[in-house]
Design brief:
Largest sheet: 5 strands, parallel
Order of helices and strands: HEEHEHEHEHEEEHEHH
CATH architecture: Alpha-Beta Barrel
Oligomer: single chain
Number of strands: 9
Number of domains: 1
Bound molecules: zinc ion
Number of helices: 8
Strand content: 15-25%
Shape: globular
Structural class: alpha/beta
Length: 239
């Protein structure tokens, strides 16, 4: 049930309505910023479950110390993971003018066009969760979806430029709730997206452990919920 005010807000600002009705539900796992530990400590877990994830990259951090190299991004892409957009500069969209955002996204697009010429960035996540309604039309022209940090299940008629997601942070994760969200996605033919940052045995406050990743993937497997990239799911939901 969508709150009436939220429904009105969606219709006013949503150039990309979608109908989500995926029998049995689906789950996506996403990483924002993508610190290098995702590669060095998280990837082995993804590989063990043969799970494909969505990586929202910040262009200016590529090839920088502590982050992924262009070659590592090419490997992830070749293995079926999705490389997606988290802007070049990682500023709050609420603090950016339309022209500043346009320049930022174009700069990012040029970099990733060189790294992955056959895979333009199709999906976006808002840096620091900062959404800004006045940017949505421009974002809708470039991307299939935009992921927020607002918790929620994606089902029924939704705004693809305002997709909710649940955080998977080691310090705060409630596994009883994670199971409920997955079960609800299954029961409501919905889509549940999780997001985190680093993956480490001693993660930051915005990261998780390799065991957390494994536990989530085990839960999804036990419930029979497929894990797909955001790109795969957006292709499955109709306009
Ligand atoms: Zn970020």
């Amino acid at each position: 049930m969508i709150h009436p005010l939220r429904r009105r807000w969606i219709s006013a600002w949503a150039p990309s309505p979608r109908e989500v009705d995926i029998p049995g539900g689906v789950c996506s796992l996403s990483f924002d910023d993508v610190p290098h530990s995702v590669w060095s400590e998280g990837k082995a877990v993804l590989d063990r479950f043969d799970a494909k994830a969505t990586f929202y990259l910040v262009g200016r951090l590529v090839n920088q110390a502590g982050y992924l190299s262009a070659e590592e991004l090419q490997t992830l892409h070749a293995e079926g993971h999705e490389i997606a957009c988290h802007t070049w500069q990682h500023q709050r969209l609420g603090h950016m003018s339309p022209s500043a955002l346009k320049a930022d996204l174009e700069r990012n697009g040029i970099l990733f066009g060189e790294i992955l010429p056959d895979a333009p960035l199709q999906n976006f996540s808002y840096p620091l969760g900062s959404t800004a309604p006045w940017h949505k039309r421009a974002l809708g022209e470039r991307y299939q979806s935009c992921r927020t940090t607002i918790p929620g299940l994606i089902t029924g008629r939704v705004d693809a430029l305002s997709l909710p997601a649940f955080k998977l942070y080691h310090d705060t994760v409630d596994w009883t709730l994670v199971k409920v969200w997955l079960e609800e996605a299954q029961a409501q033919n919905g889509w549940v997206i999780f997001y985190t940052h680093d993956v480490s045995t001693s993660p930051s406050a915005a990261g998780c452990t390799p065991e957390d990743l494994a536990r989530l993937l085990e839960l999804a497997a036990e419930l029979g919920i497929p894990v797909e990239t955001v790109r795969q799911v957006t292709h499955r939901i109709s306009a």
